[in-house]
Design goal:
Two copies of one chain form a homodimer. The first copy, chain A, is α+β, with helices and mostly antiparallel strands and 374 residues long. The first copy, chain A, has two domains: 103 residues, Immunoglobulin-like (Sandwich); 232 residues, Alpha/Beta hydrolase fold, catalytic domain (Rossmann fold, 3-Layer(aba) Sandwich), CATH 3.40.50.1820. Chain A contains eight helices and 19 strands. Chain A has an eight-stranded mixed beta sheet with strand order 12-13-15-14-16-17-18-19, with helices on both faces. The longest helix of chain A is centred in the middle third of the chain and has 16 residues. The N terminus of chain A is likely disordered. At the A-B interface, strand 9 and strand 12 of A face strand 9 and strand 12 of B.
């Protein structure tokens, strides 16, 4: 006799679990169901204690660590959730030591290769790969004069780039956050699929998107956070390299810079200091308005609002309301409003996480490159 | 008073340690010295036992596991070696559980993301990034009809590909080994730098190199090793996709296929069954001559040696002498020789590892695409 499902108090727990799209191909775990509960598994017969550790204080998996339970044959497992949709970094703590889940692909975050889980939101498909033309992401190696080292940029070229050999494209420079790398916007952020879909819908202009590593130190520089030379790298090495190696449009109206968190600060810093080179700037969950002074902040660029408004086609600032940086971002918006500096302010539900930044890119990219080229 | 270095019995141990090039940027460990001794470090104050585990039976780090020693503040370390030059997979065993070293980048091998260390050989620079023009490696997404899924190929385009918009190029399909992925030939194998350097020297023809994942299952296929559909994928999906998306030469004289280990077997299987599409085939440390029968093996392609020799411009078979597959490879060479089938046999020192396969690619690529196009 089959137990009637309708009477089962835990009916929801019967929902089918599917492997996360962020897994290593062919691995069943971690898995997710439609109620966004996640099951983690790991074979660790010799461990005394195994836990799931969501990384960071703003993680859609919850606070953790979550204890896993050992079966007789040494398989540890636990079910958590419902969790937030989106991409979440996690580690498995093996007797307290952070380790990767062998079932997960690795994603560079928290200054190391970390496990990650992508929890679907069935109401959002804008970042999913669809049956539309796909752009390529080129791993482009070059030598930096500023750092003296070989570096690589991840460069999205839009569908048609290879075939339309006379066409030239505007360029968005797009930066990751602290502890991440040039791989983040494609692996975690799915920027390529977001652009593919927007371009297929006619909602965004075909554009090149350049994703570099926000850390750069001058030759022989050993102290500091390691990102001190990044503005010089962008202006002296990266932009000339991209304009040489790819079919770009090179006027200021066809160049924009944006980033998330630390990268949002870098976009503001680099973009606002170089308005002869950039006309579009985006800060996604960036640092906000600490000590903002209209006369002096960002080199005093906001002291002449009319001049600023004449030059900058798009200054876009967004933040999730559950983000610890929200108050600062909202204060920056208010200060810019008071200064008469034209900008787009975008607030939405959301944490300091990749689901918000995917959404930010999806909102931001359609607003770029709408004017005529210079 | 400083102890005079000249009197130190362990003078060699004073050689300077440098961070491995395979590390996460900015991480000092693992480190290597000029005597090829490697120091591993990990902070793991709560672990009872930590070991370095070279993965696989044919690993240039040695047999392992190697116990690490705990300092008072919970830092574990050990020095091993001298080790073999080249790229070696390893895990850290945390109380017996395989985990990644946070100081290392991750490299897909052994069906999971693993740590790896690249130990330099100062006498070999052919795989190092040099100040020569660099090709790009494009991550190319496409939908496979055979599998019903989105897949990605890593596609090397040679220096000048972007600028010479009328030029078309021959194509090498290049496969990884069991448990690896489409990322292996660039991340572990440095195929892009090997080609850059060969092309810069004029030693190899500029070519496109396509690296796909050797695992593919037909829609709804769930059993088997997971690579059953790979030949169909190559012939029905991948080649048409690459010929559409990239500026390829499409005649058989301009198409070759090669691979390492499992990928060598796949190259033999696919290439020899499709001599109307391929004129170059390479097997690097492949499976060898088990049950080789001139009349029936590989669809009987060797039974008419003159016909075979008229069609195949290059059949290349290589193996390291310390490889467990060496005897089989040497037997295949002998059987082909007896059959009168023209081929290149390449034996060298070396294990079943990436240092051998880097060398194989470096030997093989210059021999490709030397005839006229059809």
């Amino acid at each position: 006799m089959r137990f009637p499902l309708i009477l089962c108090a835990c009916a929801a727990s019967l929902a089918a679990q599917s492997p996360a799209s962020s897994n290593v191909r062919g691995n069943a775990f971690p898995s997710v169901d439609s109620a966004r509960r996640v099951i983690f598994h790991i074979k660790a017969p010799t461990a005394q204690k195994v836990q799931v550790m969501p990384v960071g204080g703003s993680n859609g998996l919850g606070k953790g660590p979550f204890d896993m339970t050992r079966s007789e044959d040494g398989l540890w497992s636990t079910t958590i959730g419902p969790v937030q949709p989106g991409f979440h970094y996690y580690w498995l703590l093996i007797d307290g030591v952070p380790a990767n889940d062998p079932g997960s692909e690795t994603y560079f975050g928290w200054a190391r290769q970390s496990s990650g889980i992508d929890v679907p939101d069935p109401t959002l498909t804008f970042y999913e790969p669809k049956d539309v033309p796909h752009g390529d992401v080129s791993i482009h190696w070059y030598r930096s004069q500023v750092t003296g080292k070989m570096r690589r940029a991840y460069v999205y070229t839009p569908p048609g780039y290879g075939a339309n050999t006379q066409a030239r494209y505007p360029v968005l420079y797009l930066q990751h956050g602290a502890g991440e790398s040039e791989r983040g916007w494609t692996a975690q952020g799915r920027a390529n699929f977001i652009l593919d879909n927007l371009i297929a819908e006619g909602a965004a202009k075909p554009m090149i998107v350049v994703m570099e590593n926000g850390y750069a130190s001058r030759r022989d520089e050993t102290s500091g956070r390691g990102n001190e030379a990044f503005p010089d790298l962008v202006m002296q090495d990266l932009i000339p390299e991209i304009d040489k190696a790819f079919r770009t449009r090179t006027g200021r109206l066809d160049r924009a810079i944006a980033g998330l968190s630390m990268g949002g600060g870098q976009a503001m810093q680099i973009g606002l200091a170089n308005l002869d080179r950039f006309a579009g700037i985006g800060s996604f969950s960036g640092a906000g308005a600490r000590n903002f002074d209209r006369q002096t902040s960002f080199g005093g660029v906001f002291k002449d609002a009319a001049g600023f408004n004449g030059k900058v086609k798009l200054l876009w600032i967004g933040c999730g309301r559950e983000d610890g940086l929200f108050a600062g971002s909202a204060a920056l918006h208010k200060a810019l409003e008071e200064a008469g500096a034209r900008h787009v302010w975008y607030e939405s539900p959301g944490l300091h996480d990749w689901q918000v930044w995917r959404n930010h890119l999806h909102e931001f990219a359609p607003l770029l490159f709408q004017g005529k080229s210079e």
